[in-house]
Write a structure and sequence with these properties.
The complex is a heterodimer of chains A (about 650) and B (about 150). The longest helix of chain A has about 35 residues. In chain A, the strands form 2 sheets. In chain A, strands 3, 4, 5, 6, 7 and 8 form a 6-stranded antiparallel sheet that branches. A 4-stranded antiparallel sheet of chain A has the order 2-11-10-9, with helices on one face. Among the domains of chain A are: about 160 residues, no CATH class; about 100 residues. Chain A has about 650 residues and is α+β, with helices and mostly antiparallel strands. In chain A, a hairpin with a 5-residue loop joins β10 and β11. With about 150 residues, chain B is α+β, with helices and mostly antiparallel strands. Chain B has a 5-stranded mixed barrel with strand order 2-4-5-7-6. Chain B folds into 2 domains: about 35 residues, no CATH class; about 100 residues, OB fold (Dihydrolipoamide Acetyltransferase, E2P) (Beta Barrel), CATH 2.40.50.140. The relative contact order of chain B is 0.15. The chains are: A alpha+beta (about 650), B alpha+beta (about 150). β1 of chain A pairs antiparallel with β1 of chain B, so a sheet runs across the interface.
Chain lengths: ~650, ~150
Amino acid sequence: MIIELGHFALVLALLVAIFQMVVPAYGAHVRDPRMMAVAEPAAMCQFGLLLVSFLALMQAYVTSDFSVANVAANSHSTKPLLYRISGVWGNHEGSMVLWVLILALFGAAVAAFGRNLPATLKANVLAVQSSIAVAFILFILLTSNPFLRIDPAPADGNGLNPILQDPALAFHPPFLYAGYVGFSIAYSFAVAALLDGRIDAAWARWVRPWTLAAWMCLTIGIAMGSWWAYYELGWGGWWFWDPVENASFMPWLAGTALLHSALVMEKRDALKVWTVLLAILTFSLSLMGTFLVRSGILTSVHAFAVDPKRGVFVLAIMTLFTGGALALFALRARDLRQGGIFAPISREGSLVLNNILLTVACATVFVGTLYPLVLESLTGDKISVGPPYFDWTFGPLMVPLLIVLPFGPFLAWKRGDAYAAAQRLAFAAVLALVLMAMGWAFIHRGPALAPFGLALGVFVMAGSISDLAWRARFGSVPFAEAWRRLVGLPRSAIGTALAHFGVGMLVIGVVATSAYREERILVMKPGEEVRVAGYNLTFRGVAPASGPNYREEVGVFDVTRGGAPVARLEPSRRTYDMPPMPTTESGIHPGWRGDLYVVLGDAQTAGGYAVRIYFNPFVRFIWLGALVMFIAGGISLSDRRLRVGAPGRARRIAVAPAE
Amino acid sequence: MTRKQRRGVLIGVGVGVLMLAVGLVLFALRDSIVFFHTPSDLAEKPIAVGQRFRLGGLVADGSVKRGQGTKVDFVVTDTLKTVPVEYEGVLPDLFKEGQGVVAEGKFNDGGVFIADSVLAKHDENYMPPEVAKALEAKGVKLGKGAVHPGEATQ
């Protein structure tokens, strides 16, 4: 009964979404305030209905109602509660319901917090937002309906793929979707502005918090996925340049560019046309990500079951929304006035360079991801584009970006002084150069360029600290005064420095892990000892164990360093009951210096086990860096100047719709 | 600086970066892509020793020799032809006889394919699309599904 209620709520949500798409947009066109005003309650109502729908589905999962086909196919009664809940979005149909729920949540948030938006802009934004909802709710109802019953109901379900039964992965999809879908707000604002034919700095002020929120979610979502792949898949890697990873990374790159260009637009009223285009492209890349994952044309761990009808449907949605917005852009972009002038060496100039490098890097990822698909459809040749391609194309583009990054915050708007900026960065540069020289002098293994990469990371980190120190005037005023200034800095300035610091950490983690990783594969018998990266590992043997829905063989390794015990690692090989599937659980000893990572392999006929041991130096900096970026985004978002509805500014904006 | 000059600088930088990227992409696409072949493809058009490629097919029944040290031997087949494969390391969780597999590596002088990465299937109905398509083209009936990247990559 409840599941039918959820189904019905979804159909009602579709009707409300159609209403919300048509009436306010028409109202904005004919300037009818009553028709525009319905957008707000409609957005709330749409969200409420989708929430009912989602909760109904979740209820079926939690109570293990196997008369629902989707639950029977993807859940099992013995699964722990957390995974019965996360099982809702662990499959294609359920994850689409979550997708539209988040879409509606963002729409409702605009309706609730955007009280000072000009009425026509708000009506258009909510109408465009709703048109996306219409497309995806139709997609669910026509091709991927999770509310269908099966008769007779099976006694138990098929279970969730065990490698997905993991806390990080339980939250990876919701964050990722919040990121993808959050960019829909920037898209809706862009299309609404084009419909309106009017755009100004205030537009960027509204768009930026939403873009920032979406960017934060996408950052942490991608990091969680990478973290999960690292410890769950047992191959010790953290990023594979897999097409589906790229599908989430491209909107991230474009979204990062959008954050920076919207800043220029807000502060200086420049780069308007470019920012609008970027807003459209960012969401289009999110849609493309959805298409690549859902269509099954890719070879990937993320690919859902293949149904050609779905692929075609999502392709149609993507073409409609990308093509439609770009056509509108081509028609209307001319009307957008050009804004402020700036010299090439200036804050704006540095942000433009950031945008050029990020979008071109995004384009190289795009080519690498789609080239195999295009080549196969043209010539029939099957190829794969792997990490070497991305090392050669993406890597070199990041070098100038990281060199220029610390300069940006030191340059003034309009006209900057590169020499003064360089002076203020002298400490960071000297520190980086000294470390680089030491790296070349003392590290005699790994690629010759690795110390350069590490130095870049240090430069970015030290540069962001210099930025804060300079703003607070450490060194030129008494310490207490400087501290007071530091605490009093606008939160967005602190957020900027912290986010850049996180980028530096990420770079160090990536370079150190890629260049200096140690790896051993060997056969070990109980009692044997092996030395890896300064650690001594003693294999104690293998013992059987069992969990709530699996049995396992646990290998026991005692780790010592210089004679002192460090840790006991217990990598295991699990066999899940339902679905019956073997998985490998790695044993990891984390540390600042790096992770010791042990995987238990096959039992040997001559006794003993195959064992794979890695030492991944500084690998945690990768996810910590992403976490720092996420927190930095949150700090920026809490800046009252960014908060939607900040007083003072709002009054000026509210005048706009009266014309 | 006039608006025109400013625009000139911006366009100059943009075009410069783009040219650099195009150069890198062309270079990388020439040198770092790998082709995909099935055992039958190899029988028709042999591949030079030392040339990297991806080999796809099914793991032949009874061919997997585990537990003899860190190396694992198995045979990849498309039901018409077979290729012997040697892999050092821990195989992906779902590597199983009779299931789809994609291995990346190169031939040694003895005609054995030395794999340095092995991708295996992800669930019961799962088959890497390349393998499924290639096998279907050879008239072998198969199910569908999704593949696992990166597992057991060296």
